[in-house]
Amino acid sequence: MKWILYILAGWSTLVASLFLASSSGEVSAQLFGSSRYTQYLIQGLVMSGLVVPIILYLYQYVYRMTGVKPNIPVYSWRRLTHFITGVLLAIALASLGFIIANFQGWIVFENWHPSEQWFVALIINILFAFFYEALPEEIGLRGMLYDVLRYKFVTWLSVLLQTLLFVSVTIAVGQIQVLVGLAPGVSINIFYIILIFCFGICLQLLRLWTGSLWTSIGFHLAYLEIMRFAISPHQYGVPPIITYHESVPGIGALISICMMIIGGIIVSLVILGAKRFIWKST
Questions:
Q1: Taking the model in full, what pTM does it have?
Q2: Which of 119, 255, 256, 279 is deepest in the core (most CB within 10 A)?
Q3: Residues 6+ positions from 132 with CB-CB distance below 8 Å
């Protein structure tokens, strides 16, 4: 039953680290009057500083349990080129969503804002999102926890169970924040649960067809920045990359989100199916 202990250890690491990281920003602001960007830096360093070394340490025991240690692990720097694959795929799918919405008359582009208005905020947020969200979540969930589940279950069930663990991490941290008197980091509702459930499946499938966690990390990071600086802007005190008029409020965000997540799932399934067909044919 070691695999259950590793699941609990990995899941607990993510929950505890996310809670401590989110709280560290508020504590630094209250005690030292830290600026928003300083809070972001502290949160990112705490999150990755806790999750990454612990998960990599646990990974060695997972390899002993499975009896298989790959020559090039899924998190290896030698697979870093797949990071670009994930980034470009997210940008391409989001762009396709905007083009379709514009062609159908659902949105009308109004203005492209010059980069000097948002570039610095974007770079800072990329660093924050990488260390606070994309890197630790992918190496923990789509990495170690999935590999432990795959040791015991078939692929489709492992993907499903990993995604449920992904959802449960967010819910658990929100509940802990409420219990200790803090405002939850996100508003938990049925729409948000469905969103992150589909997002988790998409990210796991991306790792499967490339064999690299860096694909998931790149896609995860690009998705967050597109959301924050194009689809749902004005959260960071700077103009968005692009402004557009919507025929129905929220339709631009809905189409872009669906295109990135559902499109990512479809692309991954097509590629996995093609690889399986070729493998059977040889």
A1: 0.94
A2: 256
A3: 21, 40, 43, 44, 47, 48
Give, for all 282 residues of the chain, the pLDDT tens digit: 889 999 999 999 999 999 999 888 878 877 777 777 788 889 999 999 999 999 999 999 999 999 888 889 999 999 999 999 999 999 999 999 999 999 988 999 888 888 888 898 899 999 999 999 999 999 999 999 999 999 999 999 999 999 999 999 999 998 998 888 877 777 788 999 999 999 999 999 999 999 999 999 999 999 999 998 888 766 677 788 888 888 888 888 899 899 999 999 999 999 999 998 888 887
Give how far Cα 175 sits from Cα of 76, 95, 119, 143, 238, Å: 34, 36, 35, 25, 31
231, two tokens: 């689809």
What residue segments make up the domains of the chain, in order of their start?
2-281
- C-alpha triplet 128, 233, 130: angle, nearest 5°: 15
DSSP per position, the chain: -HHHHHHHHHHHHHHHHHHHHHHHHHHHHHHH---HHHHHHHHHHHHHHHHHHHHHHHHHHHHHHHT---SS-TT-GGGTTHHHHHHHHHHHHHHHHHHHHHHTTSEEEEEEPPGGGTHHHHHHHHHHHIIIIIHHHIIIIIIIIHHHHHHHS-HHHHHHHHHHHHHHHHHHHHHHHHHTTPPPSS---HHHHHHHHHHHHHHHHHHHHHT-HHHHHHHHHHHHHHIIIIIS--SSSS--SEEEEESSTTHHHHHHHHHHHHHHHHHHHHHHHHHHHHHHH-
